[in-house]
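Annotated sample (chain length 167).
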Amino acid sequence: DEKYEKKKRKKSSLPFPSIFILSFYLSSAFTFFVIPLTNIIRFMFPIEDGSQSQYNVYEDDVAELRADPEWLANYHESVMWVAKAWGWDVKGECEIKPEEPGMGWDNWDVRLAKIIRSLWLFNEKQLMTSMQKFARLVAPNGGLRYGGIILDEVFYMTLEETQDAKY
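Output written by the structure step:
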């Protein structure tokens, strides 16, 4: 579908690694629960069509970030931490029961949709599929929204299996 075709552009001059390394540093076990989750997620999971275009990433940016093993490991770990905060075991693709104090879905549809979209953009099939399963759990009839914007396209995003998509 052309609507979801990954866009191309010249290499970005934005300092992505420093922005994202800071975000991942903030996701350490202690700090992660002190700083509001939504503030961290805003820049932690890059997408290509965000409302603040200066933070959008495109094909060259994705290739550059995926080529950095430390960045990619932190990206994977961050997905797991956010999912855990929402009560989801991303590797086991199941709810965490019993939930620990402070865990649970916070109804921020836009953050969940952004994570799924970022995983799609970064070709992370296993993690994306797990987060889509979580999305279907919290919104079994669809209806992910941000204000008047419907975000249900994330339920239909698919990826081919690749050999480097491991977390």
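Annotation: Residues 16 and 126 are 24 Å apart (CA to CA).
Annotation: The chain is about 45% helix and 5% strand.
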